[in-house]
Amino acid sequence: MKKFDIRNIRIRKVSVDDIDDRMLLINLYVTQGLTLFIGLIWILFQGRNPIHLFSLPSSAEFAWWGIGLAAAVIVVDLIISRWVPEEASDDGGINERIFRTRAVWHIVVLSFIVAVCEEFLFRGVIQHAFGPYWTSILFASIHVRYLKHWIPTGLVFSISYGLGWIYMQTDTLWAPIAAHFIIDVVMGLIIRLRRDT
Question: What is the pLDDT of residues 58-69, one digit of tens each?
């Protein structure tokens, strides 16, 4: 039997072009599962109930906060994509690869999973420990594909801070989940439908 030798492990840089669509999708689902798992472990160490975090509020006011932030983000993103050169806001083609061939129902499902998992970890758990500013720095830095350019990095930081702000205003995780979901669905559909034209 061959012995395992850690020195034989080789790490190489992989570009989005080296990964097929199936592996990219698996990677997306696995990272969201890890995000949810980390959030669950962390919230238990905080001594808080994760079920309480997902309780529905008594009024629908949270939805207006989510819709309002999502609308503002989408307008700003469309303005940026219209006036800023594409290379200044390039994400390495990952969003294009994820959304361009997906069925509309799959875009909706992906967007919901991403919104719930990321908002649970970042707004529900990390923001509770560190506040919206440091949470937004961490949120922007895990979106590594945007870090090459200052415009998308600043946009992701601002969106994250806005999500944290509406969470503090509404005191429900459903407001940032709604905003994140709407942003991802609309931007995913724009990429998907742009392919058809």
Answer: 899 999 999 999
